[in-house]
Amino acid sequence: MAYLEPISQEWLIAKRREIHAWPEPGWCEFVSSARVIEHLEKLGFKVLCGLEVINKDYIRGAMKQQIAKFRAAAQDKVDPKILQRLDGATGVVGILETGRPGPTIGFLCNLDALPVTESTDPEHNPTKEGYASQIPGYMHACGHDGHQAVLMGLASWLAANKDQLCGTVKLIFEPGEEGSRGGRPLAQSGIVDDLDYLYVGHLGCDVPGGEVVTAPEKFLCTTKVDFRFKGTPSHAGMQPEVGRNALMAASTASLALMAIPRHGQGMTRVNVGYLRAGEGRNVIASTAEMQVEVRGETEAINNYMFNEAEARVKGAAAMYGCEVESEVMGEAIDFIKDDEVQNNFAEAAKQAKYCTKVSDTMNFNGSDDATVLMRRVQSKGGKAGYVVVGSELKAGHHQAKFEFEEFRLQELFDIYHYLVIKHLGA
Amino acid sequence: MAYLEPISQEWLIAKRREIHAWPEPGWCEFVSSARVIEHLEKLGFKVLCGLEVINKDYIRGAMKQQIAKFRAAAQDKVDPKILQRLDGATGVVGILETGRPGPTIGFLCNLDALPVTESTDPEHNPTKEGYASQIPGYMHACGHDGHQAVLMGLASWLAANKDQLCGTVKLIFEPGEEGSRGGRPLAQSGIVDDLDYLYVGHLGCDVPGGEVVTAPEKFLCTTKVDFRFKGTPSHAGMQPEVGRNALMAASTASLALMAIPRHGQGMTRVNVGYLRAGEGRNVIASTAEMQVEVRGETEAINNYMFNEAEARVKGAAAMYGCEVESEVMGEAIDFIKDDEVQNNFAEAAKQAKYCTKVSDTMNFNGSDDATVLMRRVQSKGGKAGYVVVGSELKAGHHQAKFEFEEFRLQELFDIYHYLVIKHLGA
Amino acid sequence: MAYLEPISQEWLIAKRREIHAWPEPGWCEFVSSARVIEHLEKLGFKVLCGLEVINKDYIRGAMKQQIAKFRAAAQDKVDPKILQRLDGATGVVGILETGRPGPTIGFLCNLDALPVTESTDPEHNPTKEGYASQIPGYMHACGHDGHQAVLMGLASWLAANKDQLCGTVKLIFEPGEEGSRGGRPLAQSGIVDDLDYLYVGHLGCDVPGGEVVTAPEKFLCTTKVDFRFKGTPSHAGMQPEVGRNALMAASTASLALMAIPRHGQGMTRVNVGYLRAGEGRNVIASTAEMQVEVRGETEAINNYMFNEAEARVKGAAAMYGCEVESEVMGEAIDFIKDDEVQNNFAEAAKQAKYCTKVSDTMNFNGSDDATVLMRRVQSKGGKAGYVVVGSELKAGHHQAKFEFEEFRLQELFDIYHYLVIKHLGA
Amino acid sequence: MAYLEPISQEWLIAKRREIHAWPEPGWCEFVSSARVIEHLEKLGFKVLCGLEVINKDYIRGAMKQQIAKFRAAAQDKVDPKILQRLDGATGVVGILETGRPGPTIGFLCNLDALPVTESTDPEHNPTKEGYASQIPGYMHACGHDGHQAVLMGLASWLAANKDQLCGTVKLIFEPGEEGSRGGRPLAQSGIVDDLDYLYVGHLGCDVPGGEVVTAPEKFLCTTKVDFRFKGTPSHAGMQPEVGRNALMAASTASLALMAIPRHGQGMTRVNVGYLRAGEGRNVIASTAEMQVEVRGETEAINNYMFNEAEARVKGAAAMYGCEVESEVMGEAIDFIKDDEVQNNFAEAAKQAKYCTKVSDTMNFNGSDDATVLMRRVQSKGGKAGYVVVGSELKAGHHQAKFEFEEFRLQELFDIYHYLVIKHLGA
């Protein structure tokens, strides 16, 4: 049986560059969501978006001012009706029902970019080729642009070959993966509850180009938490003794957070990624806020990190007579592999273009709240897995010169394409 | 000889409340400047403003984004022609020439407010009486609103009594006093070079209500300096070891700056009033900036503080493999009193309403870059002085509940009024 | 063929308690060494000790005052001739030559105790049974007392059965294992160069009682380093600004050292275990010294940790105008397993009393400079291995209530005993 | 009337050098006390010492081990009977009763030295002239050696001229002035309750040579306090997460203590002069102790400093899950001048050899618990004062090269001598 093959490597690369040029952070993916919605609806997919696929009770880490700014910036680029559909939340799920009996399988990618300023080095490929970020201070520095392009290409192929397939496909475009924010509200909307299989893929991750890893280990559990300190302002020249210095509390807490001890039973991570304190040069700073994340190889170790973090922050506030409050902003858990899915990935990889080596596992050492969606699928009786498609990188993830090998988009596409035919081929 | 007395205490209080409600920070005083310009021009003053009175080579600590925001907010409230005159700098000087021979005397006040969020406590008078700040995050919490009201009242009186006076009066409305930014560029414009006398007054300053201090001591020399750290971002989960953490460098520097030792020879101060670091929660922070001020009882002690600050900041950057640059943003010096001016203030205070006690001196323990203007006047052969009009305060300067006794505006007005007649009375 | 079995579990326990009561830290094991020397010489072993088995050029972390104190304390308990033999270094190697051809095999244990104050809780077994530490501030809190007892028991058995054995046995009692100090100078003396097999065992290590692990993984490479800061004293009241504060430099360094980032490629550790700074309450502290250790899963990761440590310490010194020098005090490397040795341990464990489970591996997550001796043996063509004999513990290693199950001494003895017969049995 | 003049400048200098060579810290002044006792008894003074002049309920900051060490070192140099008299406390008061009616006047000096290592620079006078400290780590680096020499010379003169004097003289040799420890227990013994006048003098204090200051201002109130942290030890490699790190708590506290804000109402000081933490390199540190002092221009400001210190230390302990306890170790208060005493000092200074200028006041900016004794005298109806005899210094007080001009001993002697004759001359 012959399938149409309308998706070229060039198409994937061009789409990825288009996405790359307009990076939007979590819960702000207005242009990104609209691009997907228009593409999928044109292809005949049933498209759900915004609060249709996001349970709003579980939204965390949504920043009003930032959202307003990106929504405003999107107004020139997006159909107002689509913008309205995204009020309340970004995020898209496209559903293709063949009408023929068969399993329901899902593929997951992420919409959001990072608050990283893209390199302007003339050797940096996006600069050289003219597709660098058009939004100062933000960049697709994690590969999500590539993941989206592959799923959009897959959508095109699926539409073109719909008549030769059975069952149902769901293409899931998750908002707010950075910060582990989108997974939980997507899961709690029930949108993945009917999946027999959920497949997730990621480019890069320090795996060499050509290698595909079919079941990474050491997905770190993580908690994202904001701390907000409140002190008392005073004139730094006349009455310095009256102030209660929130900037000092936050600085002290920062040093102590980064020094939470390693754990003898497994890996840990901690980061204070953002800190803003104070009102003006000659006023004792009365406010401070910080964005923190902790990670642990298991939930118990992650809890140890979180409890230590809270104790240190509270003590630091007490030192300086300040108050402090905390708010959990996101979370991810670890990954329990399904052998069948791992085997499917291995089969798929072996036939994928550019793949030269298939490995069972690696240490992931990071977090991806895809794990929340995968666990949800597993809890409902489905199976789920995570594949890493290696690539030489110009710089590591989240760095200003991050850039993967663009031809690897073909490799990831081939894997997904194989899985569709395996499950849904007539 | 009889003067007209058109200025009532009620007028001063009402004007002060109008000013209080629209607080603008340094170099952003668009509405404030326009209010003065219109008032003075209506009264027949010759008015210079913006770059006519500000030497732009000496402008420091002007923040583009903040200026743009306040300029935009002023567009509904200010004549566009006036706004144009303020492009490049805020600040106003009104000149009244009587046409009769006599000395040239100046009075100085400040236009700017502070980045302090005003209290919403119903007992806080601006809240109770409905004249609280209409600009979230900013507040006239130092008394500059009162100083302006007094000089505007004085302008009215001067205009009404112009025919009975000789010589020339300059009313100087300095921008950016907070941060010690406006004094130097005003001085370098030459606008005070022809003054025979420069009189400066301040309300509050922890002097009890009823007391007037005619020559405060211990004006602290100060340097305002910004430090900017640059590190390297990386993914906090996968490659934490690759990052060069600017947030940690800045936190470490903050603790060390606040711990610069006292000086055995005189008073010192130090404050890290503002700190912003990092790009996102899961990225090792690669940038940080902080706003710092040091003070010293003498220039030598202030230099000691500044040198210590630089050494500590540089060492902290080195600890974390970061680079750091510094930029001086403002400065003030100490105050050398003129006995004649002190005596004039004493005479004036004795006849002022509400004044119950005249004191020679006090420890000012703060900085006011009026000192830069005063030193300029003295260097050109004129005389200069600084008077503090005490007031009971609801909370100290720069605090969210700061509020002076409004009837003290009359007291300061009476002092200035007396000085005008003493020098320029026919 | 029948061997004599003169060593009872009771003998091992009694000997272990005798050792437990007199804990001596590294390079101070005078009583401990003498006890071994007398026991082995009485049994007919050839005994080398002190500088005969220690290459003095590689001695690190020997503290003169501490050594003098423990040598003085030993004078009442030890034959003066033996004390003389230990001048310059502690440490003992006993050699039993059967005179019959055969391999040379070695067993390693450690002589030193820790600067931990033993618990006086009446439920703590050494307290209850009356064999608690007699030296305030020091304790055998790592199991070295047990390791010594087993080798001394093995010596007795070897002597009694010498005529039924072939080849040569070396029993090695390493000084200064804590701090990874003794391994290198022992290795550099050449004393293990002729070994065909080197067997090392450790009790506890968080392995459950009954389980024996035949080839632990994740021995951390480690560097032990001292940092010494030098500043300038001054009177803290009159001239605080003149001092260069070494205590502040060291405190700042401590916080930054404990906050060296985790490494994405493998485990790390860091500890500032000791800090002493300052001369007196009212003097700006002009000296500080700290004892630090870093660890890494590989030599590259350990080097990363060490380089970060040096950079942070140097930057901290610069912040406060101090000088700093560093001295490496000890080191350990990772462990490359020999399959044959692992299999021998497994065979031996299966027949050992109390052993209920034999495991291939575990994460050791600590350091033991036995690895330096093992690598030396391997580099000369021999084989080496490390076995962990699990035990329920009352508290973790290095804690005040540390106590293993004493009957496990029999289990370790049985393993060693089996290995002797395997290699040297007639 | 003619007095005998048996005391030469050479005698004073020689005596001062003898004292300089044997520096003993607070509560350890065995040789120093004995030297005074023998000298005074030989001259016919009634001598009280140890617990006869020290109220033991008020002894603070006495360190047992240090005392034992210095007592042992004194055994070769001091008559055992005298050593016995000093059991329980050091300190001496010599009383000369003329038997003729007249006032009772006292002179105060201090016995103790500092934990400063004396410079070995060949240009340092004690090194060059061979009278440098014979006790490593300790030094008379504050001038107490000179003060003692002057009072011993005064004793000789008083004895020689006793028949020409009336009234009573008390020569008070205070132990433990450094750390502000000796003043309170001396005062509480009642030994100064009968004084009509108490005269205290100090050499140096940053006053130029030739100048004498008759009533210094800004004696800082001070509190000396020890903080002791208690955490939990654990193995830094295997179980770092189990430890509660007292070294980190203490380091964090140190940084925060040195950063207690300045006070708008007056001078402050703070110092962490000594810190010891941890047990060993590879153990999470479970203990830490620090010696701290705070000072304030008034008792209220000193209390502010002390309260801030306690809050910061407690918060730091909480951050790391540690406990902390504090113990006040010493205290001094401010100085209320008596005009009559000031005038007496001025008269006396004008006739003193080498004095070229008499000044009313200076900023002392330090603490001296002579203030506790002076306040006691004043509370009983007597008068008290403090004179500073300026000197060029080779290095500031408490520094390793501190050295005053030795001929200034004559100047201080002349002042005291004049005061004796003024009050008690026949």
Automatic annotation (TrEMBL), chains A, B, C, D:
Sorted keywords for this record are: Hydrolase
Q: Which SUPFAM superfamilies match?
A: Bacterial exopeptidase dimerisation domain (SSF55031), Zn-dependent exopeptidases (SSF53187)
A Pfam family annotated for this chain is: Peptidase_M20
Q: Does the keyword Hydrolase apply?
A: yes
The record ties this protein, via Gene3D superfamilies, to: Zn peptidases
Taxonomy, superkingdom: Bacteria
Ranges for the Peptidase M20 dimerisation domain? 225-313
**Cross-referenced PANTHER family:** PEPTIDASE M20 (PTHR30575), PEPTIDASE M20 DIMERISATION DOMAIN-CONTAINING PROTEIN (PTHR30575:SF3)
**What name is this protein filed under?**
Amidohydrolase
What is the source species? Parasutterella secunda
Q: What is the phylogenetic placement of the source species in the record?
A: Bacteria, Pseudomonadati, Pseudomonadota, Betaproteobacteria, Burkholderiales
